[in-house]
Amino acid sequence: MIADWPPFILGVAPNGARKTKADHPALPLTADEIARDAAACRAAGAALIHLHIRDKSGKHLLDAEAFRAATAAIRREAGDDLIVQITTESVGIYLPGYQMAMVREARPEACSVAIREIVPGPPAEREAAAFFAWMAREGVMAQYILYTADEVRRFADLRQRGIVPDTAPFVLYVLGRYSANQTSDPLDLAPFLAAAPRDWHWAACAFGAKEGAVALTAAVLGGHSRVGFENNLRLGDGSVAPGNAALVEQARRHAEAIGRKAADGAAARALLAAPPPVR
């Protein structure tokens, strides 16, 4: 039964690297705006915030000091329960060496890493393996971002060969793209799940107004979800969401309707620290 599944981990990606207030006036960009949004999303049911920061001109930034400042602001507004996950997304600006060095300097609680960026090919495997091992030793909670079923199979191979050391990896399946046709559908999950072993923690995020439907599908299938303005501005009925908290609340209510209670930060940390239940 659905009620037998563990709590539903809801992450929120409140801004991303590309959108501006021209896309939505409530898009949080400064550390203080992100912190207030984080508090609202936590109250709505989020256990994790996927943190992007911007420079003074509003452009994507990977900077350890700025991440620490934004994290401190989130802690002041939202408390210590919310998992703060920094991004390593390159956006075509940063190279893998810089991305990994930034994480080592920032020493976050959690970070997301796109396998296609950090391990673009076999020559990068040794350095990536050392980085992943460092994260495991330092207790940095990794989430591995996968964009295709082929990447799922490649990640499984990296894990089998010890490049990825996690005994219970946490992966994020990304449905859709930044493009003219960036919408996604719950059926897009099928190739990812068909290619994946059953001993991974997994979540899904989706582009477009079916984000809520994808979150519900993930909940039904025993996974988790990430929602937010990074990938989608609309509620399931097609209306523009007033803020990120509304997208979190929608996903939480849908999960609760099928018996999956939203995890708080403590429950999410405990769940991700152990292998997932295999059903």
Protein described:
The protein is α/β, with parallel strands linked by helices and 279 residues long. It has a single domain (9-271), classed as Aldolase class I (TIM Barrel), CATH 3.20.20. 39% of the residues lie in helices and 15% in strands. It is built from 10 helices and 10 strands. The protein has helices at residues 31-44, 64-78, 96-106, 115-118, 125-138, 149-160, 189-195, 211-220, 244-257, 265-272; strands at residues 10-12, 48-51, 53-54, 60-61, 83-87, 110-114, 141-146, 170-175, 201-206, 224-227. It has an 8-stranded parallel beta barrel, surrounded by 7 helices. Strands 3-4 form a two-stranded antiparallel ribbon. Helix 7 links the parallel strand 8 and strand 9. Helix 2 packs across helix 3. The mean pLDDT is 94.
List the helices and strands and how they pair.
Blueprint: E1 10-12, H1 31-44, E2 48-51, E3 53-54, E4 60-61, H2 64-78, E5 83-87, H3 96-106, E6 110-114, H4 115-118, H5 125-138, E7 141-146, H6 149-160, E8 170-175, H7 189-195, E9 201-206, H8 211-220, E10 224-227, H9 244-257, H10 265-272
Helix pairs in contact: 1-2, 1-9, 2-3, 6-7, 8-9
Outline of this structure?
The protein has 279 residues and is of the alpha/beta class. It has a single domain (9-271), classed as TIM Barrel, CATH 3.20.20.70. The protein has ten helices and ten strands.
